[in-house]
Design a protein that fits this description.
homodimer, mainly alpha, 3 strands, globular, DNA-binding
Chain lengths: 160, 160
DNA sequence: ACTTTTTAATTGACGCGTCATCTATTGTCG
DNA sequence: CGACAATAGATGACGCGTCAATTAAAAAGT
């Protein structure tokens, strides 16, 4: 099953072919994600915000005035808590987020986006939307759809 | 092209699903990669090695007795150098890698995999290959192929 | 030949993910 | 009620990616 040299293989300057198309697929996914992350980082850089901070702000905007406890934010990012605490520290320091210990359950800390956070999102969102389009712009709508489907299938196996 | 997400739902929950299929595609890629990374980490954990360290070892094995200068390793991982130096520090400390300042060009540091590194790879590789297959196992070979093609297309745009 | 530029690598600093551990609160049950 | 488990977070430590700045050596320019 010697497969001809693929582009990814060339990019990685690998001397031997992939052992299987599955290995190539997983590497391909990771590599593409890496590229996307890098581009996203560069886009957000002028706004002094990282991709994860951006994600958290979006989640908090979605939560609205009700706010969201620390752990719940982490769940939506599939991130472990320890990271969330410190990420929120930085957002709070920048004045983009506000935290209040919950009176009903004093173990919880409710997090809210501030007006500053809202306006930062308002500034960044349109840029990012256009950008995303350009990133995936080499694909037709149908191709993007099928990409999504394939990736979903891959993730379903994820119970491993 | 507002996709069929009901406007009503969008208004109720400010958490709008996706503005476009392209945004969904990029998020999908990143999410899937995250899952893969997590699983890979777990598989390598018993061997006291991280995914990046594993990658570097594989690259050095590929380089063979000729070895490879630090920067060249970084290029193949698309990682900036600063990280490579320290990653190699850790690999060297564990005895999996050996570094020698190049005599022809004394700026360079040539890196080699050690016997210890080789045998670690020999132990890990088969496990990982089987694992990869399982990760992507929900896909048929043809689906995996088309996934690879779509992702390649996406990365080509990456000059952005 | 001597200065300037470029290249290879290192170091310091910071953000992030993750593990293990710790504290404070709440809940449960005898 | 009082001991004990469960839950929400926080903290310390480590690996990693990345930026900016630094050192050392080679290459280029004059």
């Amino acid at each position: 099953m010697a497969r001809q040299t693929s582009r990814l293989q060339t990019e990685l300057k690998q001397t031997r072919p992939f052992q299987s198309i599955y290995q190539e697929a997983t590497l391909s996914v990771m590599k593409t994600a890496d590229l996307l992350r890098r581009q996203l980082t560069r886009q957000l850089e002028p706004h002094e915000i990282t991709p994860q901070q951006y994600n958290v702000l979006r989640i908090l905007r979605g939560a609205g005035k009700a706010g969201l406890p620390t752990l719940s934010i982490g769940e939506r990012l599939i991130e472990e808590t320890p990271g969330m605490t410190r990420l929120l520290d930085r957002l709070e320091f920048k004045g983009l987020v506000r935290r209040v210990r919950c009176e009903q359950d004093r173990r919880q800390v409710l997090c809210y986006i501030t007006d500053g956070g809202e306006s930062l999102l308002a500034a960044v969102d349109p840029i990012l939307a256009a950008d995303t389009k350009e990133m995936a712009g080499a694909l037709t709508g149908a191709e993007a759809e099928s990409l999504v489907v394939l990736l979903e299938k891959m993730r379903e196996q994820g119970t491993l």
